[in-house]
Each structure stands twice: as structure tokens, then as C-alpha cells.
Write a structure and sequence with these properties.
Layout (H helix, E strand, L loop, with lengths): L2 H10 L10 H10 L8 E5 L4 H14 L4 E4 L11 E3 L2 E2 L2 H14 L10 H15 L4 E5 L16 E4 L7 H4 L3 H9 L9 E3 L7 H10 L4 E3 L5 E4 L4 E6 L2 E6 L5 H18 L5 H10 L7 E3 L4 E4 L5 H15 L5 E4 L7 H8 L5 E4 L10 H10 L3 E4 L3 H12 L4 E5 L2 H12 L9 E2 L2 E2 L6 H5 L1
Helix pairs in contact: 1-4, 3-9, 3-10, 4-5, 7-8, 11-12
Length: 446
């Protein structure tokens, strides 16, 4: 397949929907020859912060000398955004080559067909293997135990903040949800790194870890974060202390970095040195995660779509915007806790343009607008995400701010518009030009 055909094939698999179970993935991996099976791997699971921790961990490993692949989901600008090597998205030709291998290999799975997420997971691992990666960091899609990514046999598992989400699939309490996510590792696993948890979730997470006889490092215990001023913090691990100068005003950003440092150190078997960490921080790009797009007005893009994510966003907004109350563009999926998302955000918003994302099973905008009005927030329904963003910009004015949040589907609609891009993902530029050569194994081995 050429690149266009490869992306068309992946997009077409969306019609199959989501199917839990690992039988297809194990067969696919066997047919592909077990790509990345022998590599050090970090599996990132949890409810919120997975993409940020995945990208941070991968960047730290890359800066520490390991050629590192990172697999994340979902994407904002294109399929290739999910698959990066040393921070560089996979070039079209390599994506097509890996997709062709996966498409042929799917004939070995029961029924001869795989889901979209299974295909992308196979493409990522096949591409990293072909490019000669030294390590991989993989973000779980949903849950963990039955997620398509649960074929990598990771030596380190990073558990981010756990909250009530996808309760119809993962369980109705924190213990059950955490247990599903920890199912990517066997009982008695010792390579666990647990991130900072909300007070209401911490006992359930601890119970799930204990029930599986797991052990490792915990942020708040073996890993400590000591905040300095806005631009400084100290991260302490069993390997020593790192004084980090970085613009991370939100507490959860610092906690995610501490978790990433811990996961990287467990993978390396040693402490991370400060110059490598600072190189990693300067290289990280994390679209749609508290992403500030300069302009008049400024636009903040954030993927908050559940109560915990909304609380984290609410904590961060005053640090980013000061006294400015943003005009929001919001839309949500029908299976999300709309009231739990709106409660922390509503007091911070000036008004809201409610719309419906172009994909996904969205809640009726009129219902969301009514919930906002119940919380004292002026709102109006605007058909079409792009029109809603245009209206929000006009309401905010050049000195104001716009917030886009509530749905990853909505974020995918509006990120290209807010960034002034077509949605076509290009290879990341480096200081001396394009870095697509990072994917070329022959060049790497010279």
C-alpha cells in the first residue's frame, strides 16, 4: 500500500468498532514475528495523564541514549501522530510499510479481520522493530487487561491517576477499575510505578495493588515532588534528587513528570541525569494537553472529558490565564459524566458555545447548554465545531481567551483549526531541518 491507501485502510477499520480480547492480537504478533518482544518496555495505564506520561517517559529515555518509540492515542492531527520514534512522528512511507505488513498478517487471526486499534498497535510495534528501537513506551487504549496493547510484556508499568470512567466496561468502583488497568502485568509484579492519586481514589488503588501482590515505587512515597516557585521543582527518587527548572505551574503536570522520571529510571536501572532530563523537557510536544495557542484571543486546548480531568483543568486555568475568564467551546460524549465535568469548570467560565463533535456518540448540545445555565453560565448552541470556535473567538475579543474542552473528538475537530493547520501531519522539524531520518535504520547504524 502507498501512504494514502494505508491511511484509508486504517480509517475503514473504524466501522468494526471495539472488541475486547487478546486472541487476535497474540495471533497477529506471532504472524509479525513478535516485534519489540525482546525490548525494554514501559506500559502506561490509568484514567488521566497517560499520553503526557508516555511522551515524557519516552523523551527521557531518548535523551538518556536509548532509541525510543512512543505509542499514544488518540490523535488530533492524523494517524501518524500516535507513533513516534525519538519524538518524531512516523513518516508516511514507514507508516505504509508497517501497515502493509499488518494487513497481510491479519489473515492469520480468527475471522481474518482486526479492529482499528489492533491494527494501529501492530503498525506501531512493527514500525519500531523495523527502525531498530532500543525501547518502547506504550499507552494503553482502554483499561489494560484486555486492551490490545497488552502483548508487550513490559518490565515497567506506570499507573497514572485512576478515576471513575468507562464504568460500564471496567467496573463501578476504583478497586475494580484499577484492577483492570493493572491487568497488563502478572500478580506479584515488582516493576510498578504509581502516580499521584486523588484522595478519594488512593485507598482503592492501594487495595487493587495489594490484591495482586504488586510492588514498586509510589509518587508521594519513594518518589517525592517538592515545589519551588512556578518554574522550579525538586524530584526525589531512590536514585537521588533532581532540581528541575521547567514551566509547569499545575500540580498535576509536576506529578506526571515525577511519574515519568520514576518509570524511566526503573527502565534504565539507574538515575536520570539532569542534563538529559532538561533535554527531554525541551523536546516534548504534547498537543491537546493544556496546550496554549498564542493569538488574539489566546486559545487553550485540553482533552478534559471526565471529572478528574476537569478538576485538573480547573486547577490549571487560573495559573495560565490569571483573572481572565475564558469563553469555552464545549461538547461531550453521551457516555461521560457531564455534570461531573461541568461542576469544577463552570465557575471559571465567562460563557459557553456548545456544539457537537463530528464523530462519536455525542450528548445533545441543548442538554449540555441547559446544565450550564443551571450552573449560572450563559450558553448558546452553535451547530458545527468550527462555527462554535469562530463565535467563541468573537465573544472573547482580542484581549480574552477561548477554552476548548469536554471531548477528545471535539478537540480533534478543532485543533487543526485553532493551530491554523490542515490536519495533515508532517515530520517534526529539527534545528537543522526535518528529522525523518531518525526512522532510517541504515543511517542510524552508520
Amino acid at each position: 500500500m502507498d501512504p494514502a491507501a494505508a491511511e484509508h485502510w486504517v480509517a475503514g477499520l473504524d466501522l468494526m468498532g471495539m472488541r475486547f480480547g487478546l486472541e487476535r492480537m497474540h495471533e497477529l504478533m506471532r504472524e509479525l514475528g513478535g516485534p519489540c518482544a525482546a525490548l525494554p518496555a514501559v506500559h502506561v495505564v490509568g484514567t488521566n495523564g497517560k499520553t503526557s506520561v508516555t511522551r515524557m517517559t519516552a523523551a527521557i529515555l531518548s535523551a538518556s541514549g536509548l532509541r525510543t518509540g512512543a505509542y499514544t492515542s488518540p490523535h488530533l492531527l492524523g494517524w501518524r501522530e500516535r507513533i513516534a520514534l525519538d519524538g518524531v512522528p512516523i513518516p508516511p512511507e514507514e507508516f505504509a510499510a508497517a501497515a502493509t505488513r499488518v494487513r497481510h498478517a491479519q489473515r492469520a487471526v480468527p475471522g481474518g479481520r482486526i479492529t482499528q486499534f489492533e491494527a494501529l498497535t501492530g503498525i506501531a510495534l512493527a514500525a519500531f522493530d523495523a527502525a531498530g528501537a532500543d525501547a518502547v513506551v506504550v499507552e494503553a487504549g482502554l483499561g489494560g487487561r484486555l486492551d490490545a496493547t497488552n502483548v508487550i510484556g513490559a518490565g515497567v508499568v506506570a499507573l497514572t491517576a485512576v478515576d471513575l470512567d468507562h464504568t460500564d466496561l471496567l467496573g463501578e468502583d476504583i478497586v475494580s477499575i484499577a484492577g483492570e488497568k493493572l491487568g497488563v502485568a502478572p500478580e506479584g509484579f515488582t516493576g510498578l510505578v504509581v502516580g499521584e492519586q486523588q484522595p478519594g481514589s488512593a485507598p482503592g488503588v492501594a487495595a487493587a495493588v495489594a490484591a495482586r501482590g504488586m510492588s514498586g515505587w509510589w509518587v508521594g512515597q519513594e518518589i517525592a515532588v517538592e515545589a519551588g516557585n512556578r518554574d522550579a521543582m525538586t524530584i526525589r527518587t531512590p536514585n537521588g534528587a533532581l532540581r528541575v527548572d521547567a514551566d509547569m505551574p499545575a500540580r498535576w503536570q509536576r506529578a506526571n513528570l515525577a511519574l515519568a522520571v520514576g518509570a524511566a529510571e526503573r527502565t534504565l536501572g539507574r538515575g536520570v541525569d539532569l542534563p538529559a532530563l532538561m533535554r527531554a523537557l525541551s523536546a516534548i510536544e504534547n498537543p491537546g494537553r493544556l496546550q496554549v495557542v498564542p493569538g488574539a484571543p489566546v486559545v487553550v486546548l485540553d482533552g478534559a472529558h471526565n471529572p478528574a480531568g476537569a478538576r485538573a483543568l480547573a486547577d490549571a486555568l487560573p495559573l495560565l490565564l490569571g483573572d481572565v475568564r475564558p469563553v469555552a467551546v464545549m461538547g461531550m460524549m453521551a457516555d461521560k459524566d457531564a455534570q461531573g465535568v461541568l461542576d469544577p469548570l463552570a465557575p471559571l467560565l465567562d460563557q459557553v458555545c456548545v456544539t457537537r463533535a463530528s464523530t462519536g456518540r455525542a450528548v445533545r448540545p441543548e442538554l449540555l447548554a441547559a446544565l450550564l445555565r443551571d450552573r449560572g453560565v450563559q450558553s448558546e448552541v452553535i451547530p458545527g465545531p468550527a462555527r462554535a470556535l469562530q463565535r467563541a473567538r468573537a465573544l472573547a475579543g482580542p484581549e480574552g481567551a477561548v477554552l476548548v474542552a469536554g471531548s477528545l473528538h471535539l478537540l480533534a475537530d478543532l485543533a487543526p483549526v485553532a493551530l491554523g493547520q490542515s490536519g495533515t501531519l508532517a515530520a517534526a522539524p529539527g534545528p537543522d531541518g526535518p528529522l525523518a531520518d531518525v526512522w532510517r535504520l541504515d543511517d542510524f547504524r552508520k
